[in-house]
């Protein structure tokens, strides 16, 4: 079992390079197997979710090479096999294989996904989309059984009852080879959706309107190989910006598309964070006398749900009471008890988080309950006096590439240790 050990209180400075977006990558890798030739992805982050996807691809007899952030995916000899259980259930994003298998083979069996538990995350909108395209969908024994009609999938107009990134991407994947035109209304607008549409269009798909609330897809007969560079990870960028604002003195966060994190930057400005925003990088200077702010997470371009946990430690430093309301995942509050163990003054009332500051944090033993809660505790550990030990670090490694090395390069005293005899 691995644990992170952080000796906090060290000032950070230097440069950190943001990796390719996790939330793009976990959809781009399944999307690539829709091609009939090799697809090359550049800027792939070295995270556990990517390792899990490579393992799943190999089970489908897809050849994969991955080195120095470049992944070559060759689906030439891919076979369709049912995957009701096992590694396909290990991560949330494995549900993208539903749309891909339906489009490529007209059928598929996919075990219901895992990932971080953030309260109920139903896949009813995915199923609604598949059924609208003419597929039959059964949910039996913890797996989804998908089958297209004999004549294949047919384009149609689909209205999403709620704005869902996963459902928008999955229906997009399923519809690229459907006959005729598909229109997805009330579509999610996240940058990752534009990234996936760009890859599919390079592969020969005909997709218009990605990034707006109406996406139009005209089905094509086949998709070919291409080369594609993944967008930078806006959530990783936001995480390092929050850490830099809390403990940094001249930290440069590089490879950032600032437009993707405007909601975060606006709140950091409101707090009084001292930063200079450039073309593709952001310089964070020493920031004192921070002010509490209120945050409400919303679908893009609003404040991202994935950034509310990572900014919470910064709010611990701020003067006054901050309020965080997560409208996407209201149950995303498991980091608060852990922060309180370190000396924060936080409470949760009716799924709304309140943080009263400033408070001094003290290192102690804490556990990561999910990916972004883990990143929150890393930030808190860097801020705290003394030693913080974080368990359940597998959650963190699912989504942050080389986090220990990147923080060490900024001057953090952080290391990953193996704990013998513990499960």
Automatic annotation (TrEMBL):
User: Superkingdom of the source?
Assistant: Bacteria
What keywords were assigned to this record?
A: Cell cycle, Cell division, Cell shape, Cell wall biogenesis/degradation, Cytoplasm, Peptidoglycan synthesis, Pyruvate, Transferase
Q: Where does phosphoenolpyruvate bind?
A: 22-23
Q: Where in the cell is it found?
A: Cytoplasm
- Record-linked PANTHER family: UDP-N-ACETYLGLUCOSAMINE 1-CARBOXYVINYLTRANSFERASE, UDP-N-ACETYLGLUCOSAMINE 1-CARBOXYVINYLTRANSFERASE 2
* One Gene Ontology molecular-function label: UDP-N-acetylglucosamine 1-carboxyvinyltransferase activity
Q: Which GO terms describe its biological process?
A: cell division; cell wall organization; peptidoglycan biosynthetic process; regulation of cell shape; UDP-N-acetylgalactosamine biosynthetic process
Job of this protein: Cell wall formation. Adds enolpyruvyl to UDP-N-acetylglucosamine.
- Gene Ontology cellular component? cytoplasm
Q: Which residues bind UDP-N-acetyl-alpha-D-glucosamine?
A: 92, 121-125, 306, 328
Q: Which residues form the Enolpyruvate transferase domain?
A: 7-407
Q: Which NCBIfam families match?
A: murA (TIGR01072), PRK09369.1 (NF006873), PRK12830.1 (NF009470)
Q: Name the catalytic site residues.
A: 116 (proton donor)
Q: Does the keyword Transmembrane helix apply?
A: no
Query: CDD domains from the xrefs?
Result: UdpNAET
Q: Which SUPFAM superfamilies match?
A: EPT/RTPC-like
> What protein family does this chain belong to?
Belongs to the EPSP synthase family. MurA subfamily.
Q: What is its main location?
A: cytoplasm
- Per its record, how is this protein called by name? UDP-N-acetylglucosamine 1-carboxyvinyltransferase
The encoding gene = murA
What chemistry does it catalyse, as a reaction equation?
Answer: phosphoenolpyruvate + UDP-N-acetyl-alpha-D-glucosamine = UDP-N-acetyl-3-O-(1-carboxyvinyl)-alpha-D-glucosamine + phosphate
Source species, please? Granulicatella balaenopterae
Q: Which residues carry this modification: 2-(S-cysteinyl)pyruvic acid O-phosphothioketal?
A: 116
This entry's Enzyme Commission designation comes to 2.5.1.7
The record, for InterPro entries, names:
Enolpyruvate_Tfrase_dom, Enolpyruvate_Tfrase_sf, MurA_subfamily, RNA3'P_cycl/enolpyr_Trfase_a/b, UDP_GlcNAc_COvinyl_MurA
